[in-house]
Write a structure and sequence with these properties.
By secondary structure, the protein is of the alpha/beta class. The chain folds into two domains: about 250 residues, Alpha-Beta Barrel (TIM Barrel); about 70 residues, Orthogonal Bundle (Arc Repressor Mutant, subunit A). The protein is built from 15 helices and 17 strands. The radius of gyration is 21 Å and the shape is globular.
Length: about 400
């Protein structure tokens, strides 16, 4: 009997696996994700075989690791059959043994049809669900292109709380004609559901979406900067009062209930991307240490991905080493989104340089950042204007 491969030391920031399911029932008008609508449902057995082959290939690149998190994103992963989810998790566990307390998340739409699969996902090994609630009034749900009602969404939250150990949901704010008072009431109603984690995203206009065309034609009016800031402030006040303070710009959680998979991204850990359009940051077996991250990207189009995996065993279209400077920049851009900020000593190890102390001092004097030992973090004043802070920080 052969010995099990010795697991590599966990990379700084952690190690996770992202699985992309590229299909949706309908395309939301604000969405620019890699998602596709098909008249006929995809052959899930064919996809399971392809996922298994790609997982095996990526394991060759990463070497032995222990997976601390798995995240099924999309698209709409709640259109996957529970057997498909279970089969993928078995393949992941065979490639990168799952930690005993691994966080396994699946994104889901809160329709009654999809909620019917929640118990099956739980039995397959999913222990956390992220629900795309988005709004709690039917008029705005319809405008956002969502296929559920507010009542249906709240019912799905209840089903999810019975099916999974942990539940999160998403809301979108800064919607047309939304007032701070309306948003405060809606947010408070959502928090009454008792979930441990909430993602609150400001509506933005993404290139190539129907909303971009409507906005360009003057048919979609969004809040101005002052109103957007007021809505941001309401978000912080209401979530903090409910015991879910922001730990990242758009994410709020009870202490200890943070999204561990997303923390792998924000803490600049290592993660494998599986499935059409997935990207990754891996410490490959060709590199061997934290200075050897590679950026991977998988073929976006589902049919082309299936064909590529059948022919080559994987869908990789790009697998490139990142320079020390590129890694340091990515670490800074991701880490400054967190309330905890970034480790400046790690930044120096990655880049071989130090951040300009004069720039840091200027931003600190203006109240946008603060230092605690080797850590640099944005302040309450700096978070709403983080892009400007980062530009000033790196020049």
């Amino acid at each position: 009997m052969s010995a099990r491969p010795q697991l590599s030391r966990a990379p700084e920031g952690g190690f996770g696996v992202y699985v992309h399911w590229p299909f949706c029932r309908a395309k939301c008008p604000y969405c620019d994700f890699n998602s596709h609508v098909r008249r006929d449902p995809p052959d899930q057995n064919a996809y399971l075989a392809a996922y298994r082959r790609e997982i095996a290939h990526m394991r060759e690149l990463t070497g032995p690791q222990q997976a601390e998190t798995v995240f099924f994103g999309g698209g709409t992963p709640s259109l996957m059959e529970p057997a498909l989810v279970g089969g993928i998790l078995e393949a992941i566990h065979a490639a990168w043994p799952l930690a005993a307390d691994a966080e396994i998340t699946l994104e889901a739409n809160p329709t009654s049809v999809e909620a019917a699969n929640f118990m099956g996902y739980g039995a397959a090994g999913v222990n956390r669900v992220s629900l795309g609630v988005q709004a709690l009034n039917d008029a705005d749900l319809q405008a956002l292109g969502r296929m559920h009602s507010a009542v249906e969404a709240l019912e799905a939250v209840g089903v999810a709380r019975r099916a999974f150990q942990r539940v999160s949901f998403d809301l979108i704010y800064a919607r047309p004609r939304q007032t701070p008072e309306q948003w405060a009431a809606e947010l408070a109603r959502a928090l009454e559901e008792g979930c441990e984690h909430l993602s609150a995203y400001q509506l933005t206009i993404e290139p190539g979406t129907p909303f971009e065309r409507l906005y360009g034609a003057g048919k979609l009016l969004l809040p101005d900067d002052d109103l957007s800031r007021a809505l941001w402030d309401v978000t912080q006040d209401v979530t903090r009062a409910a015991g879910l303070p922001a730990y990242e710009i758009s994410n709020h959680a009870r202490p200890g209930a943070e999204a561990r998979h997303n923390l792998v991204y924000w803490r600049y850990g290592s993660y494998v991307g599986i499935g059409p359009g997935a990207h990754g940051r891996i410490l490959s077996s060709r590199s061997g240490d934290n200075l050897g991250r590679r950026a991977t990207f998988i073929e976006r189009m589902p049919d082309a991905w299936l064909a590529r995996v059948a022919q080559e065993g994987h869908g990789l279209v790009s697998d490139e080493p990142l320079t020390p400077a590129e890694q340091a920049d990515e670490m800074l851009l991701m880490g400054m989104r967190l309330r905890e900020g970034v480790d400046l000593a790690r930044y120096e190890r990655l880049s071989g340089t130090v951040l300009d102390e004069g720039r840091i001092a200027m931003l600190a004097e203006d109240g946008f950042v603060r230092r605690e030992g080797d850590r640099l973090m944005a302040t309450e004043q700096g978070f709403p204007v983080l892009n400007g802070v980062l530009s000033a920080l790196v020049g």
